[in-house]
Design goal:
This protein is an alpha+beta fold and 552 residues long. The protein has 16 helices and 20 strands. It has helices spanning 3-23, 75-78, 137-148, 196-199, 208-211, 259-267, 281-284, 310-316, 319-327, 331-338, 368-377, 406-420, 433-442, 461-464, 478-488, 493-510, and strands at residues 53-58, 85-87, 93-95, 109-111, 117-122, 164-171, 174-179, 220-226, 230-235, 250-255, 273-275, 290-305, 344-345, 381-382, 388-390, 393-394, 396-402, 425-431, 447-453, 514-526. The longest helix is centred in the N-terminal third of the chain and has 21 residues, at 3-23. The protein is globular. It starts with a helix and ends in a 26-residue tail after the last strand.
Length: 552
Amino acid sequence: MTRKTWLKVLSLTMLFAMVLSACAAPVAAPAAAPADAGAAPADAAAAPEGSKVLRVAYGAEIDTLNALTSQNLTDIEITMVEGLIMSNDQNSYIPVLATEIPTLENGGIVENEDGTLTMTWNLQQGVQWHDGEPFTSADVCFTLDFIQSEPGQEVYNQTDYLGIINCEMPDENTVVFTWDKPAANYVTLFDTILPKHVLEGQDVLTFDGYNRSPLGTGPFKFAEWKPGEYVRVVRNDNYWRGADLPKLDEIIFSFIPDPNTRLNALKSGEYDFGQILPNQIKEVEGLEGYKVVNVPSNSWIIFEPSVGTERGKVLFGDPNVRKAIFHAIDRVAIVDGLMEGTVQLANSPISPTSPYYNPDVESYNYDPALAATMLDEAGWVVGADGIREKDGEKLSFTIINRNSRPERTAIAQAIQAYLKEVGVEVKFEDLENAAWLQRWLSMDWEAVVGGWIIPADPSLTGLYACEGSNNFTGHCNPELDALMEESDTALDFADRKPLMDAVQTMMAEEGRELPLYYNSLPYVMRSGFENFKGSGTNLGSFWNSYEWSLGE
């Protein structure tokens, strides 16, 4: 590492520390911590004596408890609701409300002469909703009807379900889907099933009777949501897996959006479990009574310029301008400085832990001289005020920052400093979590430092296709769409792998986003906490909460 690079790493580390300290003051002692600084919720603390209560120091307050429409991780919902499948700690899928996952080999999938597929799911028998009503195939078809009901509605991965053209119910324990063509990522779907008997006739998107107090088949039942403070779930005594499960009596998710405050709350001893940032691991190593489990994640952090607005098209419509900006950002310094080397540099959306990872895609190495030359060639020349301009427009844009993600704000500040060196002006608009989410979904923004967590199956169509349900940047490349759609129909790995390699190559070449690093997910938990099996997939690490135990 050169002296210049070392000074850059050092300055970024100091910047990150300042951002964190600006977001939250350290907690002096448990007794002195106010309720909004991470103290355990007093109302929820009055559990019966001898109850096994897991107190979770959680992140930002969730937007809804409907796992199908939430744009947040669904850790809380997964304790209450279940689906046909779930992803586990092995980065693979397991059946839950289904007895097995259908495949060509086991006869659950049949390829028809007209190119369609018939897919049969056999359901667990004797499963009950929390109100005692039986879970049946009608609930599955009802869930599909809701997901497909309105094009472009709020289901986070609606696009992936649109290939199902029919849902049949031969009996209460069997569902048969007809697909218009093969769909390689079918195994990722139906991680949540809705109760037809509760939601039929309701506007599911706005029905608070479910969205704020969901009914499920899972190991825990909804008990209470105190806005701004916590969600509490309690043991389902009639859980279908057996009378001895779940092992906990309650889980209380306390909302502590600021990572520094959350860290101090865990260090104070008031919580049993919580997630921290990768560069906070050193602060809890050796903490008495606790252990740290660092889970590799199927997630990556990115810098995204948007062409979803007219100004965005002017600024970022030229791929060479985007690439020039990317070459002006020192990603290595961000990884080694801000994140203290706890994460891995990324060049592709697919993690190296996946068999579909392509290690040979184009990498945007730090080269400010090249960046300046490329901007000059694109017609953006430095003006009298030091900011580049073209046709009366300044190369100036705003990054929307999320106040619950100070590490991303620190990255945005680093990007601001780097781009200033090549004549690009970056401004900020800081928003609280809900406002940021609404703004992002509206596509009324110019740039973000964001991130995605993807399933164990690596389909990228929903994120990057022109009409992808999670494409909020406005980027559209029909050639890329065709390649992704072809990969989505390849059921055999040997056929699909080269297609996914080509998808990653094309994405890097067009420069629609700058991958920064692959994430890790560190969890702090009491030493006696047992049966935690962390998952780095988009379905989170609460997938086996029915097995969790606080020990004796």
